[in-house]
Each structure stands twice: as structure tokens, then as C-alpha cells.
Amino acid sequence: MLTWEIIRWILLAIVLVNTVIALFTVFREKRDIAATWAWLLVLVFLPVVGFIIYAFLGRKLPYRKMDRIKTETQLELSEALEAQKKRFQRMKRPDEDTKRVYRRTIMLFQSIDNSFVTQHNHVDVFHDGHKLFKKMLEDIAAAKQSIHIEFYTIYNDKIGNQLRTLLEQKASEGVEVRVLYDSWGSMGVKPSFYDHLRENGGQAEPFLMTRNNLFDFRLNYRDHRKIVVIDGKIGFVGGFNVGDQYLGRLKKFGYWRDTHLRILGGAVYSLQQRFVRDWNASASTNHERIEHYRSYFPEIDVPDTAGHTALQIVSSGPDSQMEQIKLGYLRLINAAQDHIWIQTPYLIPDDSVLDALKIAAHSGIDVRIMVPCKPDHPFVYRATQYYAHYLADEGVTIYYYMNGFLHAKTMVVDGKMGSVGSANMDFRSFKLNFEINCFIYDHWLVKHLEEIFVGDIRHSHVITPTMFSQQPRWLKFKQRFSRLMSPIL
């Protein structure tokens, strides 16, 4: 018969064994200190359950899959892009004052991401989903050769079906159609959703061949990129996914405020290059891989009158330890002389970004950060509130966007440089997700983004340190607890 003493020793043994296994599990894979401690908390204080969570969220991608992404720089693709680089380098270069402002940032991305800068791009900014998808669908309908689409989310709803039907039509016309989606982000959409597209000659693949989330034991590593390339000449990149909620059709979120770019010019080559690599890493058979690259990088006539915007397309992900987009954010923050304005749905910066923002604010730079007033992920939102409070205490102006849900991922600095893309200001975008951003070197376009920011302020409330301090104790506890989990959220 079991006595309380025996039960106590059994429980103690379980705790000790659980702790030893937790230590072995966490330390056998290389990760930063913050993530290490966060996982230890989960494994130690949630015996058994913690290991189930870790099985799905904690393990890294297998080296085989990582290598597939890294090695998708085959010779023919490299040669095609090198030829295009030389062509754009022969174009008129920016004046010396402009080069001094941008040079170090451009050099950073050339070094860490092999990203070349292109000039004379024409860029349209969309911050309303209805206008964006109207133009995107028009461009797709006019496609003659190829349509390449990569999204984190493509839902089986009204806009998702509208896009799919159009792609089926274009495929039946002989246009090459390839769709790459993230199986977790497109949760609820079965592979059969694309059967008719395949019957018409198109192709659709889940990113890195993850077809069933029940058997995907590495849920943490998601394809968060949003890329559309049409005929190798028109490109879209930004924060919108494909779904009715991004058009403000879900009552839960209301109006959806996001930012997306439509690009004409040489920067489209970088978007195309990223898509080709991601597609080939995800193709289920060699027959489905893209092998003859030159046709996807057509000669683009980009005279000086076509556009004046210099851009660099930068991608990052767990296939690299460099954290390219985070370093780009740090570069822009550290280069600021007057102001830094940021919009992000998730504000969970690591220590390096947190310190950079604090230094800027205490140096007299106008640092403003706008976040949503409502959550779409409870723990993530509470962590966002924690860091918003922390930065407000350090002199950063914090805005809560009140007119629906803010999903834009933008940064503008001094009216000279900026960034728009898929990467949030959080651990997940820095370390775990596959992301893509467009870095902008053009004061006219950056000024336009600043005007949009000022317009959003009219729909926002400033949240002061005093207002944070008056929050209920239970809410503060949830914020602090979520902050402890922030490295793995």
C-alpha cells in the first residue's frame, strides 16, 4: 500500500528525472541564452506536457531541409543574376550626398545577404486590402508567361477562391502558375484545394514539403514571406496575406491596416530569385523544380523616367545565423539623426534591438512605435504590451492603433531610409520565420510612408507610462509572464 512518504519520493524522482532530461534536451541544440531559459521554464514546470510542446515547437529544422534552401544558388541562376547586376550598375548612380547617406546600409546587405541595390524602380504603396487585391488580380489577369506566388496564408474563403479561380484560368491559357504556401499559416486548407489548378497545368506546393501539420514536429519554422512575381517584371511584397480578414471582412479584427508594395524595375529580380530558391527547396520531385532560369529574368527597360527609387530586397530565416533583417533594422535605428517611426503588430524585440531603441530615445531622437489595440495571439499581445510599457518608460512614444487591426511592418528613419516587408519587430521574425523585406533609399517614397504614419496617428491613442501603471495587477502579471516566454512565442 502506497504511503504519502512513498508518493512524495516518487514525485521527487519524477521531478529530478524530468529536470535532467530537460537540461539534456535544451542544451544539446545551439540556441541563444534567452530561448534556452524560456524552454527550460516550459520543460521543468510543465512535466510531460512541456516535452510535447517542445516536440512541436522547440526542435530545429533538420539539416537536410536547411541545406536545400542554402544550396539553391545553382550556377545558371547565379550567372543570370550577375549579368543583371552589371547591367544595373552601369546605370546612372546617385549623387555623392545620397551615397554617403545610404552607403553603409547598402554595404551591410551586400555583405550579409549578397543583396544588390537596384535604382530607378517604380513603387506603389498600398495600405488598404481592397485596393491592393484589385490591382494584384488585374496584374495576374494580364500575365503572359509566368505567375509566381508565395504566401504564409492563403485561406479557402471569398478572396482565396477568387485568386484560385483566376490562377486556374491563367494556367488553362498556358501561363506557368506556381503557388507556394505555408501549411500552418494556411491552416484548414487541404492540398485538394489546388487540385483543379493542377489539372489545368498549374502547380502548388507547401513550403519545405510540409503537407500535414499533425506530423510536422517543427511548427516553429514557418514561411512568413509574401511574394508575388508576374512575368518577371512586376513584383509585390509586404505584410498582406490572402484571406477575407485582410479585407476587413472579419468582425473580430474590423478594418485591417497593413502595408504592401508593388514594384516595377530591377528589384523584381531579387523577389524572383527568392521565390525560385524557395520553390526548388520545396518541390516534391526533381521534375517540378525550376531549372532553366534565364526566362524568369527578362530584360527590363528601366529608363530614368520610369522610377527613381533605389531598393534592396533582403531575406532572412533559420537557414542562416546572420539574422539579416534584424541587422538591417539595427542599422537603420543606429543611423538615425532625427526620428525613427515604427509600425508593428508584435513588439517583442531582443536585447540588441531594445538597447538600440533605448539609446536612440535617450539621445533625443524622436522614437515612435505604433502597435494594435487588440490581440490576434493572446500571449504575443501581452508580451507586446510589456515591451510597449518598458519602452514608454524609456522615452519612446507608444501609439495604440484604434481603427481595427494594425498588421503593417514598416520603419522610416529621418525621411531618408525605410523598410516594408513581412518581418515583425519580434524574436520570431528575427530568428524563426523565413522573412523578406524591401529596404528603401528614396526620400520621396519614405516621406509618403511617413504621411501614412501621420494619418494613422489620427486613429491612435498615445499610451503613457502613467496609463500603463494604472493597469490591473492581473493584467500586469500576464504581461510579465508572457515576456518570460517571448523568446519562444
TrEMBL record:
The keyword Lipid metabolism applies. Residues 219-246, 402-429 form the PLD phosphodiesterase domain. It is a multi-pass membrane protein. One of its GO terms (biological process) is cardiolipin biosynthetic process. It is found in: Cell membrane. Keywords: Cell membrane, Lipid biosynthesis, Lipid metabolism, Membrane, Phospholipid biosynthesis, Phospholipid metabolism, Repeat, Transferase, Transmembrane, Transmembrane helix. GO terms for molecular function: cardiolipin synthase activity. Its main location: membrane. It catalyses: 2 a 1,2-diacyl-sn-glycero-3-phospho-(1'-sn-glycerol) = a cardiolipin + glycerol. The chain crosses the membrane at residues 6-27, 34-57. GO terms for cellular component: plasma membrane. Its EC number is 2.7.8.-. It is an enzyme of class 2 (transferase). The active site is at H224, K226, D231, H407, K409, D414. Catalyzes the reversible phosphatidyl group transfer from one phosphatidylglycerol molecule to another to form cardiolipin (CL) (diphosphatidylglycerol) and glycerol. Belongs to the phospholipase D family. Cardiolipin synthase subfamily. PANTHER family: CARDIOLIPIN SYNTHASE (PTHR21248), PHOSPHOLIPASE D (PTHR21248:SF22). This is Cardiolipin synthase. The gene is cls.
